[in-house]
Write a structure and sequence with these properties.
The chain has helices spanning about 1-5, 10-25, 30-40, 45-65, 65-80, 90-110, 115-125, 130-160. With about 160 residues, the protein is mainly alpha-helical. Helix 3 (about 30-40) runs parallel beside helix 8 (about 130-160) and helix 6 runs parallel beside helix 8.
């Protein structure tokens, strides 16, 4: 992948390729940002493009979360379960999830499972799309910055050795 990106003629096309890679599911800032910096692109621009590309997937998931929830409710109704019925255990788990789960999942998502998968999990567990979007945006901004700084200093250290 490194060789493919370095053979693209214009730097503008490298940024476009980087944006497309960042928008693809399962390719998070942990891969895209260091890859762009390894191509010799501006670390600040690479961090911003990685952030926006990854956030695009989260936005799409948040927008279509209502359609998914409606499909899920139709499926539950077909199985004979009441709409929105939760056991006491499920209610308690949902309250704990809403209070503590989303921030921790969002901050660990790029390193653990990926932001798109984590956003889908949070939406399925009942978090509001606004909260999912907000926490994932904070997480992506933080990790994009960390990866850009880490890649710049890491690649600089490798050249120094």
């Amino acid at each position: 992948m490194l060789e493919w990106g370095s053979h693209i003629d214009a730097a503008g096309w490298q940024y476009v390729a980087l944006f497309v890679l960042a928008a693809l599911p399962w390719l998070d800032v942990f891969l895209v940002v260091p890859l762009g910096i390894a191509w010799g692109l501006s670390p600040i621009t690479v961090g911003i493009i990685g952030f926006i590309g990854n956030l695009l997937t989260v936005i799409a998931l948040c927008i279509f979360s209502r359609q998914f929830a409606a499909w899920r409710e139709r499926r539950r109704a077909a199985k004979g379960k009441e709409r929105g019925s939760l056991s006491k255990r499920e209610e308690r788990a949902k309250k704990l999830w809403e209070r503590y789960g989303l921030p921790v999942l969002a901050l660990l998502a790029p390193a653990a499972v990926g932001t798109d998968i984590a956003a889908a999990i949070a939406l399925v567990l009942g978090s509001s799309p606004k909260r999912v979007f907000g926490w994932m945006a904070v997480s992506l901004a933080l990790w994009s910055t960390v990866m850009a700084v880490g890649a710049v200093y890491g690649f600089g250290y490798m050249k120094w050795i």
